[in-house]
């Protein structure tokens, strides 16, 4: 779950380019801090999470029939589904794809269409740090 919230923040703000750090909050979600500010999530009635992004906008996720999640944000709908590498493939609202793979740090590496990679690591707070 921590990776999903961090990924939501990273995907919703692709120009941020900096580090995102998350930790669990008292609502059963995650609080994330990055270059654009702070986001906060909490579970919703659909089995996913509602997230308030740093600019005050909201995203919402819910499980889909592919074993992944649908994430609805101000930029559109992102579809996540499991892949063969133990991670997820994300189809963005504009049709581009981002692939995540499990890494040796207990989290995910995100491989973006432009060839850049975002690496996430579990942190001491029970969340993740991505850069």
What does this structure look like?
By secondary structure, the protein is mainly beta. It is built from 1 helix and 12 strands, in the order H-E-E-E-E-E-E-E-E-E-E-E-E. The chain has one helix spanning 2-12, and strands at residues 20-24, 30-34, 37-43, 49-52, 58-63, 69-73, 76-82, 88-91, 97-102, 108-111, 117-122, 128-130. Strand 10 (108-111) and strand 11 form a beta hairpin. The longest helix has 11 residues, at 2-12. The chain starts with a helix and ends with a strand.
The largest pleated sheet is described as: 12 strands, antiparallel, barrel
Rg, Cα atoms, Å: 13 Å
Helix/strand class: mainly beta
Global morphology: globular
In the sheet with the most strands, the strands line up as 1-2-3-4-5-6-7-8-9-10-11-12
What's the topology here?
Layout: H1 2-12, E1 20-24, E2 30-34, E3 37-43, E4 49-52, E5 58-63, E6 69-73, E7 76-82, E8 88-91, E9 97-102, E10 108-111, E11 117-122, E12 128-130
Antiparallel strand pairs: 1-2, 1-12, 2-3, 3-4, 4-5, 5-6, 6-7, 7-8, 8-9, 9-10, 10-11, 11-12
Features of the shown structure:
mainly beta; 12 strands
Question: What's the quick description here?
Answer:
By secondary structure, this protein is mainly beta. The chain is 8% helix and 47% strand.
């Amino acid at each position: 779950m921590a990776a999903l919230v961090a990924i939501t923040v990273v995907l919703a703000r692709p120009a941020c380019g900096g580090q995102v750090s998350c930790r669990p909050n008292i609502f059963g979600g995650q609080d994330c801090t990055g270059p654009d500010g702070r986001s906060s999530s909490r579970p919703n009635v659909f089995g996913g999470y509602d997230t308030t992004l740093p600019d005050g906008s909201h995203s919402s996720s819910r499980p889909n029939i592919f074993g992944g999640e649908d994430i609805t944000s101000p930029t559109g709908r992102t579809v996540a589904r499991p892949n063969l590498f133990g991670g997820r493939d994300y189809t963005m609202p504009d049709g581009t794809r981002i692939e995540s793979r499990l890494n040796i740090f207990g989290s995910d590496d995100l491989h973006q269409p432009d060839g850049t990679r975002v690496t996430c690591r579990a942190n001491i707070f029970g969340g993740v740090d991505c850069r």
